[in-house]
Specification:
single chain, 151 residues, mainly alpha, 0% strand, elongated
Length: 151
């Protein structure tokens, strides 16, 4: 039996829930319990998500969403998918705005634009890499470059 990354992360977070239950039993207020849950469990779940989120299956994503729904997570308007999408956007913005960022050099070259086109959501006109395989399509930079192609 192989242990997947998702199973390992969920197992680690389940152990943290025992500590949260203990804190609740000792009278920690709900607001403080939410802050501790956000700081420990949600951050542990979303740690390095831009690297692994594209490689997860639909089943893994459903398991992560179900875990958050049955826990202390009070912000029901934010799904785990939206948390990971926000992390992706922040990282991609940091990469594209900083030429000295480590991940800036693997970006495809920018194309010069001599005519007016509609505004791109990421503000750059890249020569997009070709779809070569499912694995390369799961790559963070490829996902982010193709993400807003129709917007």
């Amino acid at each position: 039996m192989t242990v997947t990354l998702t199973s390992a992360i969920l197992s680690s977070c389940a152990q943290s829930l025992f500590a949260l239950r203990t804190l609740r039993q000792h009278g920690l207020p709900t607001e403080a319990l939410q802050a501790v849950f956000q700081a420990i469990v949600v951050n542990k779940l979303s740690y390095a998500s831009p690297a692994w989120w594209g490689l997860t299956s639909a089943d893994d994503r459903m398991r992560l969403e179900a875990f958050l729904r049955r826990c202390y997570y009070d912000d029901t308007s934010r799904t785990f998918n939206s948390i990971c999408a926000d992390a992706d956007e922040r990282l991609f913005t940091n990469i594209t705005s900083n030429r000295r960022h480590l991940l800036y050099s693997p970006l495809p070259p920018q194309q010069e634009q001599h005519y007016l086109l509609r505004k791109r959501s990421y503000g750059y006109m890249y020569k997009l890499p070709e779809h070569t395989s499912t694995l390369s399509d799961s790559n963070f930079l490829t996902r982010m470059l193709y993400k807003n192609i129709n917007t």
